[in-house]
Write a structure and sequence with these properties.
InterPro entries: DUF4249. By secondary structure, the protein is mainly beta. The protein contains one helix and 25 strands. It has a domain of about 250 residues. It is globular and about 70 Å long. The N and C termini lie far apart (about 55 Å).
């Protein structure tokens, strides 16, 4: 029996209701959480499927492996199958949706349970006219260390259309050049894994990337905006992201601006409140969040989360950080390379590791990267 966290209070919960609901609930193992986005830019679409679980008395969510996941064009019937990568399902790198198209999500879990989404139509995008990065030595306060952390704020300027109400959601990818692609603690790197050996080793060995490689970071918070008070006006230098100074490596920020439907905006507004109050995306959801997903075979099986199809515009900014005086938040360890001459370790002597293509790592050079 899972530990009770909250009492389930749902005054109205109908099968066809797709408005976001923020109830308190009793934590149970096996609850399904699905977050999916299909965008009009290549590389911007993904689906994440998690299940609630209890491990060592701790309530958390865990990525659900082995699912069959597809985007379906509701008009043409086109099926786009997604592939499982590290912690997500993604379409091919060439996939992008188009303005005016209508898409929905279909998921089949490994146990055969099916989940579908309501269809979503892609609205007109709103262009970004300017992007700016501003350094702040006191970017954000860390309650754990009781201190301020340095970093950059990213702000945008755009012209809001006057014809319709507009709702915005911003996300980003950041890219930093990697030198080390694998670190083995108390062991050595052989056959693409860290292995123990009978020969004494240092605390760790670093294995350098065998080609150019970039670390990818994703946002830890949600940034949204509606034009209720700015309809038809130019919005100038609106802060949309915070980039903490984890390292002093130069960094490329790719901002994506999504144009949402009103239903999608209301959903993300509730989700933002949850994330802001519960330590980010990695915390177990403290409340259920009902979106536009449903089980077509069981009306009593409620899935939490949402599929969103959205027009997207993007903007890039490259930030040089070597000369920043403040200390980095995640300082890099001194290099410790395995010896190659008269090595005491089992052959072959190894100093490199592959830059495997993953959700948080890529060997594909970002188009806006500056050498």
């Amino acid at each position: 029996m899972a530990k009770k966290i909250f009492l389930l209070v749902l005054s109205i919960l109908l099968f066809n209701c797709i408005d976001p609901v923020e109830p308190e609930f009793e934590f149970k193992e096996g609850l399904v959480f699905i977050e999916g986005i299909a965008t009009t830019v290549k590389g911007g679409s993904f689906v994440i499927i998690n299940k609630s679980t209890t491990e060592f008395g701790i309530n958390k969510t865990k990525f659900e492996k082995g699912a069959s996941v597809s985007f379906i064009n509701s008009v043409s019937g086109e099926v786009v199958n997604l592939t499982e990568v590290e912690g997500a399902y993604v379409p091919s790198v060439e996939f992008k949706a188009n303005i005016g198209e209508q898409w929905q999500l279909q998921v089949t879990l490994l146990d055969g349970t099916q989940y579908h989404s309501q269809p979503e139509r892609i609205l007109q995008p709103v262009p970004i006219t300017n992007i700016k990065a501003t350094y702040d030595p006191e970017l954000q306060f860390n309650d754990g260390t009781n201190s301020f952390e340095p970093g950059h704020t990213i702000s945008l300027t755009f012209n809001d259309p006057i014809e319709n109400e507009n709702y915005y959601y911003w996300t980003f990818k950041s890219f930093e050049k990697l030198v080390v692609c694998q670190t083995c603690f108390d062991g050595i790197y052989r056959n693409e894994t860290c292995q123990q050996t009978n020969v004494a080793t240092p605390d760790y060995f670093n294995y350098l990337c065998d080609q150019e490689c970039w670390l990818i970071r994703l946002p830890e918070s949600i940034s949204i905006f509606d034009d209720k008070f700015t309809n038809g006006k130019t919005t100038t230098d609106l802060e949309v992201a915070k980039i903490p100074l984890y390292t002093k490596n130069n960094i490329l920020i790719e901002i994506q601006q999504l144009s949402l439907t009103p239903d999608a905006y209301e959903y993300y507004k509730v989700l933002k409140d949850l994330v802001d109050n519960n330590s980010g995306f990695n915390a177990p959801p403290p409340a259920a969040l009902i979106g536009n997903m449903y089980n077509p075979n069981d009306t009593d099986d409620f899935v939490f989360g949402r599929f969103t199809a959205a027009a997207t515009t993007s903007a890039d900014i490259f930030i040089e950080r070597e000369d920043i005086p403040e200390k980095e938040l995640d300082p890099q360890r001194a290099l410790s390379i395995e010896p190659t001459f008269q090595s005491p370790y089992p052959p072959p002597a190894t100093t490199q590791a592959a830059c495997n293509e993953e959700r948080f790592r890529t060997a594909i050079k970002p188009a806006a990267w500056i050498n």
